[in-house]
Amino acid sequence: MAPHPSLWFNSLGMLQPSEVEQTEPVSSRPQPKLNPPSAVTSLPWRQMFSCQWVEFLVKRRSSDWASGWDQQKWSWWSYRASLHVLTGYGSDPLGTAELYAFLLGAGNDVSTVSTCLSNLCTLGWSFATTPAHRRLSNVWLRLYHAYHRGRHSWFDLRYWQPQSLEDLPLEYIRRWFRISD
What we know:
With 181 residues, the chain is mainly alpha-helical. It has helices spanning 38-41, 51-60, 71-87, 93-105, 110-126, 132-151, 170-176; strands spanning 7-9, 15-17. The chain has a domain at 69-176. It has 7 helices and 2 strands. The relative contact order is 0.12.
């Protein structure tokens, strides 16, 4: 899924114009208005916080992540976002519920269980308008798979330090923690 209608990630993880726009001259093409913080743009491409990180932030569509946040809030948000990037789950309510189901399956503490349950309540409210078969079959099946994916991984939240893994490729980190796709 492309982060912007006029952009896509090529096999090297670089943002490229779509094929439709490649027929137009470069000067006449509309330029995307991406404003990632300097902490993201200064990181080298093809590493953990590179194309996946920028793609996650663009999908998030937060306008205030570059301005007005103090360092503590930014570090907490980047810590949580790094878990989403590592596991591949989105930042929507279902993706967050999948992340907590993964953490629960990975054998983390009781606070993860309580957070997972509160997130499931939020998820129930957000899916209240969808058909019952989608709520029951799709959502619970995805949570079940996320839980078992966490059970088979070697991931431990107590020792997760994303800042020390910035120089490693995402595929290597996923193999290290045995997080399957």
